[in-house]
Batch of 3 targets.
Target 1
Amino acid sequence: MIPAASNTSFKNNRLHPGLTAQGKEQIKALCKLIQVKPDDTIVVSPTKRTLETVELLTSSARGRVMISPLVGPRMFPQDSSYTPLGCDQIYSRAEVGMLYPDIQVIDVGLNDWEESINQMPARHFTLLAESLLAWCRKQKGHIFMVSHDGTITNYRVLLGEYELTRNDFLGEAGYCTIRHV
């Protein structure tokens, strides 16, 4: 699982911020640590910065890239009093089709584009996330998820890591390996 790189020079409430120069450099460094092979699948959040991250990760070797709102921004820990940030607004399915016509969308048979997972109740998120993980288990090769710190931490909890806090975030352009999903 890989969080998007730096977009910290942008105001957090800016809609669809892209990667900064620093973020692009972070991804170039990350490319030296991981290798995406043709049989691998990259599941990416429908945000500009994560899609730009994938473009840089796959510039030399291309795995199959798939977009899913189920790896879109999600707060961690969940707190209904928090207001989602503008930078965490995902592209709509229509925008994805227009901006990224060559990238497929994962359809897990649920109406997952209408409601953001950002503040979704835990029970509903778990149901949706389990369906995505079931889809991932059926794929060949490795699965890379390019997502956001809060989302990745929510998935890590779902996969059995306990007592995680914001201190356990991977950080910009960090990654973790999960062997058995």
Target 2
Amino acid sequence: MTEQMRWLAIVLTSVVVVLSVTACSSAKASKCEEAFTAAATSVSGVASAEWDCNFSFGGGWVRSQVVVEAATKAEAIAVMEAVLRAIAAAPDLKDSWSTPQEYANQNRTVVVAANALGFGAVPTVGQVRAHYGITPR
């Protein structure tokens, strides 16, 4: 095999590997986004919910925006707790994935976070499951 052929083989192999990883990451991200959205929007009091999951090259993130129908912090906290319980019960969500950082009403006059429920920081799905003793079905 000539030197040029060897380099061409290496480049083509690298492209195939990158495309394979990207395709798997994309499918995993879609499943993540769909599962989180389904769990959150199943809760009464959620006006909208959007997720952006990215798992490229072994790292990644889970970002979200949950808009609640709440006029008071107490109402928003009740909806947030219901959303977290729904997320914990969702079998397609991985324990290591992050839950929303905050929950706000449409005009952002009411904004709450999971620390109102006793979490020290933004909890993972696994931490929420442990906190509420929920095992997904």
Target 3
Amino acid sequence: MDIVFIIVFVLTLFIIISNFNSGAKAARERTPKGIKEKKQKELIKEKQKAWINDDLIYDPETGAKITLEQAQSGVWDLPSEEEKAKHEEEQRISLNEQGIEAGHLFELLKEKGFKAKKLNDEQIEFLEQSALLTQYDDWGYTECFINNDEMVVFSPYVKLKRLHYEESQLMVWVKVNHASGHYFMEPKNTTNKLLGSFINKEDIKVENYSVYTLKKGFDITNAKKILKKFSNEKGLQVELNDNNLLIKTFVTPNRKDFERIEKLM
């Protein structure tokens, strides 16, 4: 009886120890993966931040990283294959597939003399009151570039919870002269329940767009002139608030959208 008890006891102990070792091994196998993934995400975030704030411009055709002066002159040394591969890898890590077009835009902005900067408190407070962004449940922003003429180009990240909608978009903010009033316009046949509660009187008529008068200006002549520039453009929302002109897309930032907006400025 004692022998049987001892055998059973030993077998039970052996099973417990084996299970414990298996669990410990599994835990050891999981932990490095979790740590590795965390470190990889931190590394990508650091590389993205460094890449955005890098004053050098990446040329996708030659794989070179060059200064603004070199870009303007059109003369620079070609990188070695090792340097080219390194720069391509940095760009690949810094950008996901959806962000490659945005990355090309950010390179273009740096080439044009824009600098990566944060919006200040006054700018954020103004944007928080804008019709363009208050139509969403929540918003934030990531990349922001400002040039010497104080044109602000940034990427708001907007959310509509009821529609499970989240998107990074392109927004351009410029100062205009001799404008008054507060107007918002968007493509016709767009349902906007928020703006429907405002005055929906079309003091200004723009082909292909609906114009909402939020505050009528003392002289709408110049406001009409500014807003009518966008009549042939698709997929934009435009807000004119006195001397502040805001233009926003519905899609991820890209060079094509920025260039067509820039031409109208």
